[in-house]
Amino acid sequence: AAQAAPRHFLELSDFDAATLRQMLDLAADTKRGAVADKPLAGKTIALIFEKPSTRTRVSFEVGIHQLGGHAIVLSSKDMQLGRGESAADTAKVLSRYVDAIMLRTDSVAKLRELAEHATVPVINGLTDVSHPCQLMADVLTFEEHRGPVAGQTIAWVGDGNNVAQSFIQAAARFGFTLRLATPPELAPPAQLVDWARREGATIELTSDPVAAVRGARCVVTDTWVSMSDEKEGGPTARHNMLAPYQLNAALLQHAAADAIVMHCLPAHRGEEITAEVIDGPQSVVFDEAENRLHAQKGVLLWALGAG
Ligand code: CP
Ligand code: NVA
């Protein structure tokens, strides 16, 4: 018998705005304690990590526990996946045991293969090209501090990396203007920017951080050397390219007076952001980190149809 397609959470671009909003509403409901007790009772979720994690690992495990479910945290090194078993076979096997699978991987192709062969929901816990769970938390955080994000201007300064690319998708779905200042070499893929513009988003690309930040209601940055860049052989080239994009007090001066500062963490004080800014009054980075927990509960409740 044909089964309903599992509710994967792979890319923000896969969804319409209303479905993402439904997940955020569930997140806000769980945060204020307005969700039925133990909606994931009897459910088991596998959390697979091919790369390190603090926030994603702990927030998923704690969130699942708080919703009454059970999490199994797996390092791919300890799985046959780490020694060549295919993502397809892994998906088919795990689908017989668990109710959902989260994967953090370098390879978006591996995530897609897992999702294609899983009969349970697959959640993207970061790839080399996206980090949608982060953006759900970021939108929740912006809206808690500054109200509806639609029509607002958010500035991204630094590397056009996985988080930046999910910001572009979020701009298309949540209706905010996104200005990205990156070195030309580290600009986000033109194909993705074109897609977002076709979807009606306002995406402005520049190599001038001051132009990007001017008047913005929120300024965001991220590490200069992402996990997938570590194999490039030394961070020096990136540091040289990205130094002019540091989020410091002088740059933040150009933003709206009430601008908030976000960073997905982990941060490197004195590199992409100064201590003064990340530890200063405009920074909401720890609210943002906390919201990973709440946002992912919303995603899980939606994916498991338990909302
Ligand atoms: N922001 C984020 O995803 O952090 P971790 O790498 O610690 O999970
Ligand atoms: N861009 C960073 C985000 C970490 C959460 C990385 O991929 O390493």
TrEMBL record:
This entry's Enzyme Commission designation comes to: 2.1.3.3
Top EC class, one word = transferase
The chain positions of domain Aspartate/ornithine carbamoyltransferase carbamoyl-P binding read 7-144
Q: Which domain of life is it from?
A: Bacteria
Q: Per the record's keyword annotation, is Cytoplasm included, yes or no? A: yes
Q: Which residues bind L-ornithine?
A: N162, D222, S226, M227
InterPro entries of this UniProt entry? Asp/Orn_carbamoyltranf_P-bd, Asp/Orn_carbamoylTrfase, Asp/Orn_carbamoylTrfase_sf, Asp_carbamoyltransf_Asp/Orn-bd, Orn/put_carbamltrans, OTCase_ArgI
Q: Which reaction does it catalyse?
A: carbamoyl phosphate + L-ornithine = L-citrulline + phosphate + H(+)
Could you say which residues bind carbamoyl phosphate here?
A: S53, T54, R55, T56, Q80, R104, H131, P132, C133, Q134, C264, L265, R292
The pathway that the record names for this protein is: Amino-acid biosynthesis; L-arginine biosynthesis; L-arginine from L-ornithine and carbamoyl phosphate: step 1/3
Keyword hit for Transferase? yes
GO terms of molecular function = ornithine carbamoyltransferase activity
Localization, UniProt: Cytoplasm
Aspartate/ornithine carbamoyltransferase Asp/Orn-binding domain residues are 151-302
**Keywords from the UniProt entry:** Cytoplasm, Transferase
Q: Which NCBIfam families match?
A: orni_carb_tr, PRK00779.1
Q: Into which family does the record put it? A: Belongs to the aspartate/ornithine carbamoyltransferase superfamily. OTCase family.
Purpose: Reversibly catalyzes the transfer of the carbamoyl group from carbamoyl phosphate (CP) to the N(epsilon) atom of ornithine (ORN) to produce L-citrulline.
* Alphabetical list of PANTHER family matching this protein: ORNITHINE CARBAMOYLTRANSFERASE, MITOCHONDRIAL, ORNITHINE TRANSCARBAMYLASE, MITOCHONDRIAL
Q: What is this protein called?
A: Ornithine carbamoyltransferase
Q: Supply the source organism's classification.
A: Bacteria, Pseudomonadati, Pseudomonadota, Alphaproteobacteria, Acetobacterales
